[in-house]
Design goal:
mitochondrion; 5 strands; 276 residues; mitochondrion outer membrane; single chain; 5-stranded antiparallel beta sheet; alpha+beta; 51% helix; metal ion binding; ARMC1
Length: 276
């Protein structure tokens, strides 16, 4: 197995571990994972860079992690480098920018928390604190058929192929996906992509004037053109991954023990292989 495939496998596993809120504190406290993720920001494979950014974005959703992430040696500088690098795909730059904004504001959050408690609760429902960024918007999808990790993987693959999707997070218990997209991308493109799996069907969740929720189905005959994202390579198919069984273990709720065991393996790999 090549070093590049190993890197992609490791960073994808870290991304999946970070997607589980139960694992986020342990990943940040681990001595090898954060330095390794920062090194991945400079990897020649753009998919490795993007997956590393997604992992850090998941970690930053935990407020207690933000100061640690911000203070990690090389974190902020490496994010700036990704944002400024001419060869970085647009969605990668935008994701790095969103993470940078979250971490930059970390020191101010404690002072503002009491005064802005209501606003803070509202922000938790959004994908990023920087949701007022005019270049991006948040779409909430309810997905019938989003029942297990296999369906989640299908949904991930469908979303990652859409040019303009920045990032996404799943709420498996309520069959929802919160998607961060460029402001010029129509929500219908997300519905078309997910409905094309033939085993899932998406509806958009919108807020009503009285604070309730309304689910809007996407039209079956929607003619919205879905532009495929060619800047970022596809993920490895599940049957090519040597860590298939570990992936099944760490994606279920309550997988802290399995996740911590895999963290040790990942940290050893990072220490051994990625000090260019």
């Amino acid at each position: 197995m090549s070093a590049e495939v190993d890197a992609l496998t490791v960073v994808n596993q870290l991304r999946d571990l970070a997607a589980d809120p139960l694992n986020r504190r342990a990943i940040v406290e681990d001595q090898g994972c954060l330095p390794g993720l920062i090194l991945f920001f400079d990897h020649p494979n753009p998919q490795v860079v993007y997956s590393a950014l997604l992992a850090v974005r998941y970690l930053a959703e935990c407020r207690a992690n933000r100061e640690k992430l911000k203070g990690e040696l090389g974190m902020m500088l490496s994010l700036q480098n990704v944002m400024q690098k001419s060869s970085s795909p647009g969605e990668t730059k935008l994701l790095a920018s969103e993470i940078y904004e979250i971490l930059q504001s970390a020191g101010k959050e404690e002072a503002e928390r009491a005064e802005a408690a209501a606003a803070s609760c509202q922000r938790k429902a959004h994908f990023f604190l920087g949701s007022n960024n005019k270049r991006a918007k948040t779409v909430v999808l309810h997905i019938d058929g989003l029942d297990d990790s296999t369906r989640r993987s299908l949904c991930e693959e469908a979303l990652l192929k859409i040019r303009g999707v920045i990032s996404f997070t799943f709420q498996m218990a309520v069959k929802r996906c919160v998607v961060r997209i460029r402001s010029d991308l129509k929500a219908e493109a997300l519905g078309t992509a997910i409905n094309s799996t033939k085993v899932m069907k998406a509806q958009q969740v919108v807020k009503t004037d009285d604070g309730g929720e309304l689910m809007l189905p996407f039209q079956e005959d929607s003619s919205v053109l879905v532009e495929e994202n060619t800047d970022i390579p596809d993920y490895l198919p599940e049957d090519e991954s040597p860590s298939q069984e570990q992936d099944k273990a760490v994606t279920r709720v309550g997988s802290v023990t399995d996740g911590l065991g895999w963290l040790s393996t990942a940290a050893n790999f990072l220490t051994r292989s990625f000090y260019w």
